[in-house]
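Researcher: Please generate the 3D structure of the following complex. Treat every line as part of one assembly.
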Amino acid sequence: MSAAPFTRIAVIGLGLLGGSVALAARARMAGVIVTGYDADAAVRARAAQIGLADTIAATPAQAVADADLVVFCVPVGAMAAAAAAVAPYLPAGCVVSDVGSSKASVLKALGDALPHATIVPAHPVAGTEQSGPDAGFATLFAGRWCILTPPDGADATAVARVAAFWEGLGARVEMMDAAHHDLVLAVTSHLPHLIAYTIVGTASDLEEVTQSEVIKYSAGGFRDFTRIAASDPTMWRDVFLHNRDAVLTMLQVFTEDLTELQKAIRKGDGAALFDHFTRTRAIRRSIIAMGQDDARPDFGRDHGAVATPSTPD
Amino acid sequence: MSAAPFTRIAVIGLGLLGGSVALAARARMAGVIVTGYDADAAVRARAAQIGLADTIAATPAQAVADADLVVFCVPVGAMAAAAAAVAPYLPAGCVVSDVGSSKASVLKALGDALPHATIVPAHPVAGTEQSGPDAGFATLFAGRWCILTPPDGADATAVARVAAFWEGLGARVEMMDAAHHDLVLAVTSHLPHLIAYTIVGTASDLEEVTQSEVIKYSAGGFRDFTRIAASDPTMWRDVFLHNRDAVLTMLQVFTEDLTELQKAIRKGDGAALFDHFTRTRAIRRSIIAMGQDDARPDFGRDHGAVATPSTPD
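Model: Done. Output below.
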């Protein structure tokens, strides 16, 4: 452990991300005290029970009382309310950050609610399909990228401290303009989620193919999409509402490309299909080479010890 | 091991599927002799080197000389040629099967080339994104479904023996009409692959976002799609050409559903998005309950031991 850039950290929102931030900070940063808070009393109770933080505060005021860093870990649509709730109690000099998936909207929400605070928005590109206080774990950020989107004229020292904080949690830090972040993540995260949610819905609603058949034969590819489409509905509703323009832009390009492949299938143009399918192989090799995914086939799924199905249907 | 339904098995095509059939039969069926053949001399040489089969035949004639089962494990567009190559040498009474992903087209191809053979088409719903003779493994079919699509009037004994063969390899067997199979797999396998290939292509070709950014921030969801889009281009070109109508039908439904979600985003209809995203969670729970996917978050990717990236970029 090295000297921590902050010593009194308040984590607002104790789901997958907030829980992981709290656990990682406690595991990896010497001398840091983590206080957690969640607007949901049941989540606070559970967080206390499983020891997510050193203290679970009962109110926003208690949560931030002596914090030198406040990290908002709530859905991007809840940032404004969460920030407003702590606004009257925020200590002078306290740095504010977050983990939201859209950055232009979050910067505006936090800035409006906390006009005097030093705000350094952050987005750790990490997660699982699970949510809630039991979903977090201390190694979620290990080897993942965390994108900081400090506004023009941001305090350089505060930016450096927030960067050091995320590096302390195991992440690699990159700086980016908020608008560009929103475009990049629209294609690497938001559009994939939208498409996964769509196809899982499509498959569930068919008349010609039963849901039981979809489930049984999902190993042909479909099951991969169901993981992403099991992500938190509130979080993702907010992402699409708050990064609307970038998502719609990327969706337009995707639709054009899909129409082109549809035409190749309809016309029986095997050469066009083969050419496209060959190009897309290279990207996966690069992702694995960059340490951003598991190199083992089929995500390393264990083909030797398959779970017994719960029904013999 | 139990008594094998066939004792002399010829596997034609030694890629991921053929290699896995050969390895599984040798590992799990007492007294079975497996002969392998591939039209590609380099694949035959590699298969001999790594011992995929008891014998690697040098010609189609040698491959099927004394077989009581021939399993065609070539791309569906190559079925006709592979069957024609063995047609003059096929022993009387030999049963013919395959592993193709589209069944109506394969039944026709095999039936045309082998008009006197007993044909029981099969489709094991199993695979990885890897291909070639080194990709196969003996447990690929364990716990997976294998769909048999025997034509009307098929010999019941031959169907039962082919079913027993696949059960012997570890699969669970289901019977289905070929046309219905093609519709079911269009939604559980072919459409997911088409969409994955599309979005990976979209992300690679953007002007506003670099390929390096797409790779770096792929953990936000995109990387899941790259696995499927790394699948064998020849195999998938053939699937789309040979199951064209069913794929285009399902693609039409998907496009309608995507347009609906696009409209909800454009209009800011959070309730519609939330409702859709909530429904899609249930399907994943069922898939896990049925033993068709890994229950661990993020496919069980190891967050504690992330690979070191090859460049510090």
